Amino acid sequence: MKPTYYYIYTFPDVRGHGPKDRLQTNQTVALVIVIAPKTMDNNMAFLNAEALSAALKDDGKVALSGIYFDLDKDTLRPDSTPALQEVGKLLKNNPGLKVHVVGHTDNQGTVEHNLDLSLRRAQAVAAELQKSYGTDASRIDSFGCGPYSPASSNQNEDGKAKNRRVELVAW
């Protein structure tokens, strides 16, 4: 359960600056602020193995929502496990499927740094699929696009978040 925070401020309205039809001079004003944090929505849906397979058949590629790295790092976070399990299931259920794991970044930082970071992230995903899900190395490789293939505009934070992704591309 996510926390909800309540802040209550009370103060005298000694100058009568409240709405004229509701407050009179020298009344007490109460201000209640409710903050209910939620996870940022990037319009991404978690895809199971069947949906991943369908997307690869229809489009030849699919963005893997649910693959997470810390800022400027290439180590997979533990909360990536459910998405990796579905990719592992996809590859197990489709033994003839070969995929490129393609890393993408936003445009923050230098192009060289982002190309390197995106490649290292793609390599981390490919290595995890081989190590934990038994994917044969001949069926999977990795590539880093850096900022060169954005999914959205890099002009705002929402777009940048959509550009930081890992995709599977069938080959």
Task: Please characterize this protein's 3D structure.
The protein is α+β, with helices and mostly antiparallel strands. It has two domains: 5-35, no CATH class; 49-170, 60s Ribosomal Protein L30, Chain: A (2-Layer Sandwich). 32% of the residues lie in helices and 23% in strands. It contains four helices and six strands; from the N terminus they run ββαβαβαβαβ. The chain has helices at residues 49-59, 81-93, 111-133, 157-163; strands at residues 5-13, 27-35, 61-63, 99-104, 140-146, 166-170. The chain has a four-stranded mixed β-sheet with strand order 3-6-4-5. The two termini are 42 Å apart.
List the helices and strands and how they pair.
Layout: E1 5-13, E2 27-35, H1 49-59, E3 61-63, H2 81-93, E4 99-104, H3 111-133, E5 140-146, H4 157-163, E6 166-170
Parallel strand pairs: 4-5
Antiparallel strand pairs: 1-2, 3-6, 4-6
Helix pairs in contact: 1-2, 2-3
Taken together, the total number of domains comes to 2
Helical run tally: 4
Please report the distance between the alpha carbons of the first and last residues: 42 Å
Q: Look at the structure and name the CATH superfamily of the largest domain.
A: OmpA-like domain
Helix share bin: 25-40%
Series of secondary-structure elements, N-terminal to C-terminal: EEHEHEHEHE
Overall mean pLDDT score? 87
Main sheet, how many strands, which sense, barrel?
A: 4 strands, mixed
The shape, in one word, is elongated
Strand order of the largest sheet: 3-6-4-5
CATH topology of the largest domain: 60s Ribosomal Protein L30, Chain: A
- What structural category do the secondary elements indicate? alpha+beta
- The CATH class of the largest domain turns out to be Alpha Beta
Strand content: 15-25%
